[in-house]
């Protein structure tokens, strides 16, 4: 399980970096792309804090106004943090329970493996939203962010 999660977070880091670079290279920061990437990043920050049993800043709603450089910096920092979490845990620890309170104030208990799966699904979804916006509005083809292309790189 650890190897799978390590691969997933390495892929997440790779895909986020490719998309960040593409946005930078094409000057695509705008009021539609930035908030989605900021939300993706904010979610990674919250989940990284929850996994590491740190207080979260989930009630901070300023993420929608983060400047592009702040989005990139926080995204990179949490990419490293999420991977570090996996690398410092043994296989049997991925079935341990994480207790957290969601953004609506509801308490939950979930296995670490479930949280990691959620983080990966969420980031993939939001990257897809950004790619869709770029294709629709900018008439540009983004680089492939497929997992198999990561594996082949």
Task: Give a quick summary of the entry.
The chain has helices at 2-25, 33-51, 68-87, 112-138, 147-152; strands at residues 97-101, 107-111. It is mainly alpha-helical.
Uncertain residue segments: none
Strand content: 5-15%
**What is the approximate shape?**
globular
Largest sheet: 2 strands, antiparallel
Please give the number of β-strands: 2
Mean residue pLDDT:
93
N-to-C order of helices and strands? HHHEEHH
Give the helix tally. Answer: 5
Describe this structure as you would to a colleague.
It is built from 5 helices and 2 strands. 25% of the residues are buried. The two termini are 22 Å apart. β1 and β2 form a beta hairpin. It is mainly α. A two-stranded antiparallel sheet has the order 1-2.
Features of the shown structure:
7% strand, 2 strands, two-stranded antiparallel ribbon, 153 residues, mainly alpha, 63% helix
Topology:
Elements: H1 2-25, H2 33-51, H3 68-87, E1 97-101, E2 107-111, H4 112-138, H5 147-152
Antiparallel strand pairs: 1-2
